[in-house]
Design goal:
Elements: E1 11-14, E2 17-23, E3 41-45, E4 63-69, E5 80-84, E6 87-88, E7 90-95, E8 98-104, E9 110-113, E10 123-130, E11 168-169, E12 173-177, E13 187-193, E14 196-202, E15 210-217, E16 220-226, E17 230-235, E18 249-257, E19 260-269, E20 274-277, E21 280-283, E22 286-287, E23 290-294, H1 308-321, E24 325-327, H2 335-344, E25 347-351, H3 364-382, E26 388-395, H4 403-418, E27 424-428, E28 443-446, H5 458-476, E29 480-484, H6 503-518, E30 523-529, E31 534-535, E32 546-547, H7 560-570
Parallel strand pairs: 23-24, 23-30, 24-25, 25-26, 26-27, 27-28, 28-29, 29-30
Antiparallel strand pairs: 1-12, 2-3, 2-4, 4-10, 5-9, 5-12, 6-11, 7-8, 7-10, 13-14, 14-17, 15-16, 15-18, 18-19, 20-21, 21-22, 31-32
Helix pairs in contact: 1-2, 3-4, 5-6, 6-7
The structure holds (2S,3S,4S,5R)-3,4,5-trihydroxy-6-oxo-oxane-2-carboxylic acid (GCB).
Length: about 575
């Protein structure tokens, strides 16, 4: 799904700002609230509601939003779509009292054609949001605390995952115009032959329309036209994309009818290849090692709402430490985050919102359908980013169950059919007996040696990790990325010798694990859990409702571990 843009053929209009809001504790709003909320109060969009309002932290809805708008001058009568970047979790949308439809699942965009429903002036947009935790939702919540369903940790709110279940309209809501029969989708694949970059683009279009494509940038302009929906552009002496040379070109797609251009879309692209070869991960046919983090879209007051300054700050912190990569744990991040990854040269493992999955019968069919929807929506949104080098189907599914293997086989095949070019993986806490490891392209392991296992015993933890890595590799002969490792540190807590929860213990754990990982040539990635402290549901392990495994605090200040990592990673040549 293409992001709205403004050019002579298209315009976009961001509805972000102060909207009106009301909780609906008796769930009675469907009777009439689509025509206007009876007693609303102001609320910022985009942002979660949980920390903006003093009485709403643990309230997961349902709740209603509304805003009024008039169309920009000259828009009335054009084709107009209404697009939501992310609403968590379930959204129902009305325009001028008419129901447009609904979308389930946060973190991924959805849109409605409002051409025949929007007025020139005095429009009322109403959204009902339900963020309640249920066993048949993904990610799930309110599940039994037994090993079949969960890690057995009692939490409030009762998430089956370890981050706060923030609710609301989390990313921009936009209106945009586009020409009839305009550009609706672009799929780009790049290849490299010697010094020539090959750009292949597919653009669905009407049969009587000519497709014109231009690649511009790095001192070249290459244009081609075709009557078909597929076009190939060879770029001589291509400047390839990599973390050290994040060269982008503009791919300008135009649709031409009877010699007249009637739509245009400009997509930044990077010419690069990615593939697994034996135990290596090859970017542009050169082995690459990922250094970086898991993180969360999380910041005080805005919750999971998109805040551009925080996006920039997190990239600054990752660069300062010497990272070249991150995983979108545990859901697809904003389009803004991925655009910047392209521009700044970060390698991204893009993960669906499938965290806390279990395979007991209750709600399984629904969870399965949702996971397939998420794979489709994530790939449709993110397939053209050079920064995205792998798809992650899930995080730490409770996958002892044999059902899990066929479940993930279907998701793997689906991802491959939608995008044959990128490796597909999932992040697992399980051992070498995980049935899915047989078909995944690369193996992502989450390991907390010295913390959750071999607690407080780092020497033993490193021995166990060494042995386990060798066993997994001996069995599967696939590249391994450690997608989580680390320890909790309360900022300002110090201990010598290092003790759990001190900054010294966290720094030592991370440094010792990295030493092990650096000694294994088949380990092609090290992602510390995590970049910054983040808010969680309340539970006995989470002091103040915060996960303190960040190497930076929630306010983005460094702990000892950040300095230690910087010394380790910046001294090493980044590939
Ligand atoms: C994990 C999860 C992550 C948690 C982390 C922890 O294995 O993947 O979501 O936050 O452990 O800190 O416990």
């Amino acid at each position: 799904m293409l992001y709205p843009q403004t050019n002579p053929f298209r315009q976009s209009f961001d509805l972000s700002g102060i909207w009106e809001f009301q909780f609906d504790p008796d769930d009675c709003g469907r009777t009439s609230w689509m025509n206007g909320l009876p007693a609303p109060r102001p609320l910022a969009v985009p942002a979660s509601w949980n920390e903006q309002l003093v009485d709403a932290r643990d309230n997961l809805g349902p709740a209603w939003y509304q805003t009024r708008f008039r169309l920009p001058w000259g828009w009335y009568g054009q084709h107009i779509r209404l697009r939501f970047g992310s609403v968590n979790y379930l959204a129902d949308v009305w325009l001028n009292g008419e129901w447009l439809g609904w979308h389930e699942g946060g973190h991924l965009p959805f849109e409605f054609d409002v051409t025949t429903r929007v007025r020139d002036d005095n429009n009322l947009l109403v959204v009902r949001v339900d963020g309640n935790l249920m066993a048949n939702r993904v990610p799930p919540g309110n599940v039994p605390l037994d090993p079949q369903h969960s890690f057995g940790v009692a939490r409030y709110p009762a998430t089956n995952f370890d981050f706060f279940p923030y609710c609301g309209i989390h990313r921009p809501v936009m209106l945009y115009t586009l020409p009839p029969y305009g550009i609706d989708d672009i799929t780009v694949i790049t290849e490299i032959e010697g010094t020539t970059g090959i750009v292949r683009a597919r653009v669905p279009k009407p049969d009587d329309v000519t497709l014109r494509a231009t690649v511009r940038g790095n001192n070249v302009v290459v244009t081609s036209e075709t009557a078909s929906a597929d076009i190939v552009l060879p770029i001589p002496h291509a400047h390839v994309w990599s973390p050290t040379t994040p060269n982008l070109y503009d791919l300008i797609i135009e649709l031409v009818r009877a010699g007249v251009v009637y739509d245009r879309y400009t997509l930044p692209i990077g010419i690069r290849t990615i593939r697994v070869d034996g135990s290596a991960l090859l970017l542009n046919d050169t082995p690459i090692v990922l250094r970086g983090f898991g993180r969360h879209e999380d910041f005080p007051i805005v919750g999971r709402g998109m805040l551009s300054a925080v996006t920039i700050k997190d990239y600054e912190l990752m660069r300062w430490v010497g990272a070249n990569s991150f995983r979108t744990s545990h859901y697809p991040y904003s389009e803004q985050m991925l655009d910047l990854a392209d521009r700044l040269g970060f390698l991204v493992i893009d993960e669906t919102p499938a965290v806390g999955l279990f395979f007991a019968e209750d709600g399984l069919a629904k969870r399965f359908a949702l996971c397939q929807q998420y794979v489709r929506e994530m790939i449709a949104r993110d397939k053209n980013h050079p920064s995205v080098i792998a798809w992650s189907l899930a995080n730490e599914p409770h996958a002892h169950d044999p059902t899990a293997v066929s479940f993930f086989r279907v998701l793997y095949d689906l991802a491959k059919s939608l995008d044959p070019t990128r490796p597909v993986t999932l992040a697992s806490h399980l051992d070498a007996n995980n049935g899915s490891f047989g078909f995944l392209d690369l193996l992502c392991l989450n390991r907390y040696n010295g913390w959750k296992s071999e607690t407080a015993q780092l020497d033993l933890g490193c021995q166990v990790l060494t042995r386990e890595l060798d066993e997994v590799y001996a069995r599967y002969h696939k590249p391994i990325i450690i997608t989580e490792f680390g320890a909790e540190a309360l900022p300002g807590c110090h201990a010598e010798p290092p003790a759990m929860f001190s900054e010294e213990y966290q720094a030592e754990t991370i440094a010792r694990v990295i030493q092990v990982l650096n000694s294994k040539p088949y380990v092609v990635g090290q992602h510390v859990w995590c970049l910054c402290d983040f808010k969680t549901s309340q539970e006995v392990r989470r002091v103040g409702g915060i996960n303190h495994k960040g190497v930076f605090t929630r306010e983005r200040q460094p702990k000892l571990a950040a300095h230690r990592l910087r010394a380790l990673w910046r001294n090493d040549a980044l590939t």
